[in-house]
């Protein structure tokens, strides 16, 4: 129940020495401020790193062929083999839990020979033969026209989607792109769309805008690939880990291509989910460090409040003696000291949260005017759970800070207290 007299007494006790109270409260305020800022900075770093993945489906693995290291079924080690289009159907049939299997072929490469010609302009670009699902694994914004569809696949249409980097280098500024033709390794392809890749992070972000996508079937026909598949991008369904399914996928390939079951070198792979999980583990550790450091700083402030409350109890020995003589119970004395401690802790702690929130808002405002796509830091923030956690920490800290002074207060005998001057 709210008692005006009790709260007046608390305010009067804490305001009797403003300078001492402010210095005491600063320790708690600073501890909460550091805690919230560290958590927000950790979140900003996490957002920046995840932004660097550019929306890529992280539950994905990439798989390619390598030379077998063991002879098997009369076949020598060191031989070369290729994935086939039939491998895709076999994997789908034998490995449940997969969402997308994208066979891919590729021409060109960064720093390679010029393989694309338009009029008098030439350029060296990565050209991919893909299925429409690849856009779910490597998200991109279609800025004009459209992406590949299954009619393109079925009819083996010689159409292409080009990146904005290709457009800048091969076309004039206001020149029409859609409906124009590019010559890729001597074969004409009509441009039906342009894209802008979401940031890939790191040094390859610019090159990600200089790629060309054509239908897998048209690619195979135009460049005499037959039923060969260069490599695959395989994504698991939600609730399934590609890391757990990876072994089954590789086993299917080994069986179909007569590779020794114990040959770990014959099938190359990169598990994006495994790497992403390591990064998530790093951020969990960073959050734990933030809580550890923030709570240690907060603890120093709590010790300061406890010491000041001990001094306050000592200064009010006479008052406590009078209250005890007039019939005040030990619990009412203890409750009064604890209330003062909790009130001071919460007020100072909430002040720290307010200041920290202001700093976070200012940082976000500064970042809003910048291109953060290539930064490892974006949108630092704390969610409601952090604020609730901070409030619980403050309440617990206030109880801890006032516990010893409260116990000392109820140990004072009325006669001894009245005798004190």
Automatic annotation (TrEMBL):
One of its GO terms (molecular function) is transmembrane transporter activity. Belongs to the ABC-4 integral membrane protein family. Residues 292-414 form the ABC3 transporter permease C-terminal domain. It is a multi-pass membrane protein. Its main location: membrane. The chain crosses the membrane at residues 21-41, 288-313, 342-366, 386-404. This is Putative ABC transport system permease protein. GO terms for cellular component: plasma membrane. It comes from Salegentibacter echinorum. Keywords: Cell membrane, Membrane, Transmembrane, Transmembrane helix. InterPro entries: ABC3_permease_C, MacB_PCD, Macrolide_Exporter_MacB. It is found in: Cell membrane.
